[in-house]
C-alpha cells in the first residue's frame, strides 16, 4: 500500500483524477471500477474537464460501478445509475452501453450478483478500481462483518450508512435499507486500487483502515492484502495517521510520483 497526503482536498481530488487518466492513456481498452458518494463528485468533475481538454479519451473504456440500491430504478434521482449519468457519463465521451451497474430492480438477487460477477470476468477483470470509504469503514457497501472473501451480492445497510446517506433522500426514510455491492473479494481482484479519503470526519476510520489490523469490522482494511493499492488523502483525513513522515518521504523520493509532486 502507498499513502499520498496532499495539503488540500482539491489537490487530493486532482491527483486521484490524474492517476485514473494516466492509467487510461496507457491502456485505452480500459476496465474502470467506479464509486459514488459525495467525495467522488469532484473527481468526476476533474475527469470531465480533462476529457473536454482532450487529455483523456473514454471512447473505449468499460466501467463497473461498485454498488446500487435495491428497489431504485435507473431514473430515480437517488439511484447510483442516475448519479453516474449526471456526474460523469453525460459529461464524457463514453459509450453508455459500456457502463455497468448492478440492476437495483433485479427480481432474483442471487442471480443478479452472479450476473455482475460474470460480466466483470467476461470483460477481463477490472484494471483500476476507484474507492471511497464509508464512516463505518465500508468499501462498496461491504458493511462491518462482511466476509473478506465476499462476491457481488445483496447486503443490509448499517445504521451508520443509513445516517450518512439518508440525508440525500426526501423524505430521509425513503432510503432503501439494502443494496447490491461488489464483494471485498471482487474488489481485491482489481489489478490496481485507488482510494480517496477526504475531510476531518474520515480521519479516524482512515487510520483504522490503513494502519489498523485487517478486520472484517473495517472492510477497507482488507486493502492491506492488495498488492497495488494507493490511498490518497487530504491533510484533514490524514490527521490521525501515525506514519505520515514515512508516507511523505516515499512520495517525495519515489520516481513514480515525480509527475504528481
Ligand atoms: P462519501 O461516501 O463520499 O459520501 O463520504 C463514501 C462511501 O460511503 O463509500
Summarize the structure in words:
With 261 residues, this protein is an alpha/beta fold. It has one domain (2-260): Rossmann fold (3-Layer(aba) Sandwich). The protein has helices spanning 9-26, 38-52, 80-87, 109-122, 159-165, 184-188, 203-211, 244-253; strands at 2-6, 31-34, 62-65, 67-69, 99-100, 128-131, 153-156, 178-181, 192-197, 229-234. It has a seven-stranded parallel beta sheet, sandwiched between helices. α1 (9-26) crosses α2 (38-52). The longest helix has 18 residues, at 9-26. The chain is globular.
Topology:
Layout: E1 2-6, H1 9-26, E2 31-34, H2 38-52, E3 62-65, E4 67-69, H3 80-87, E5 99-100, H4 109-122, E6 128-131, E7 153-156, H5 159-165, E8 178-181, H6 184-188, E9 192-197, H7 203-211, E10 229-234, H8 244-253
Parallel strand pairs: 1-10, 2-3, 2-6, 3-5, 6-9, 9-10
Antiparallel strand pairs: 4-8, 7-8
This protein binds 2-phosphoglycolic acid.
Amino acid at each position: 500500500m502507498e499513502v499520498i497526503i496532499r495539503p488540500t482536498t482539491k489537490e487530493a481530488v486532482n491527483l486521484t483524477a490524474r492517476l485514473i487518466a494516466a492509467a487510461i492513456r496507457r491502456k485505452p481498452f480500459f476496465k474502470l471500477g467506479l464509486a459514488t458518494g459525495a467525495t467522488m463528485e469532484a473527481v468526476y468533475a476533474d475527469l470531465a474537464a480533462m476529457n473536454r481538454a482532450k487529455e483523456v479519451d473514454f471512447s473505449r473504456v468499460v466501467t463497473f460501478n461498485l454498488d446500487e440500491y435495491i428497489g431504485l430504478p435507473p431514473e430515480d434521482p437517488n439511484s447510483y445509475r442516475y448519479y453516474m449519468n449526471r456526474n460523469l457519463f453525460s459529461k464524457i465521451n463514453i459509450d453508455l452501453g459500456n457502463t455497468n451497474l448492478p440492476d437495483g430492480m433485479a427480481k432474483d438477487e442471487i442471480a443478479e450478483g452472479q450476473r455482475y460477477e460474470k460480466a466483470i470476468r467476461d470483460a477481463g477483470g477490472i484494471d483500476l478500481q476507484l474507492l471511497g470509504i464509508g464512516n463505518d469503514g465500508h468499501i462498496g457497501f461491504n458493511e462491518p462483518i462482511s466476509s473478506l472473501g465476499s462476491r457481488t451480492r445483496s447486503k443490509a445497510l448499517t445504521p451508520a450508512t443509513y445516517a450518512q446517506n439518508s440525508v440525500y433522500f426526501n423524505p430521509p426514510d425513503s432510503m432503501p435499507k439494502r443494496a447490491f455491492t461488489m464483494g471485498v473479494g471482487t474488489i481485491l481482484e482489481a489489478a490496481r486500487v485507488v482510494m480517496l479519503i477526504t475531510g476531518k470526519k474520515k480521519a479516524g476510520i482512515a487510520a483504522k483502515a490503513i494502519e489498523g489490523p485487517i478486520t472484517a469490522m473495517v472492510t477497507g482494511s482488507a486493502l492491506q492484502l492488495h498488492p497495488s493499492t494507493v490511498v490518497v488523502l487530504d491533510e484533514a483525513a490524514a490527521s490521525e495517521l501515525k506514519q505520515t513522515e514515512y508516507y511523505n518521504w516515499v512520495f517525495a523520493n519515489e520516481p513514480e510520483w515525480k509527475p504528481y509532486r
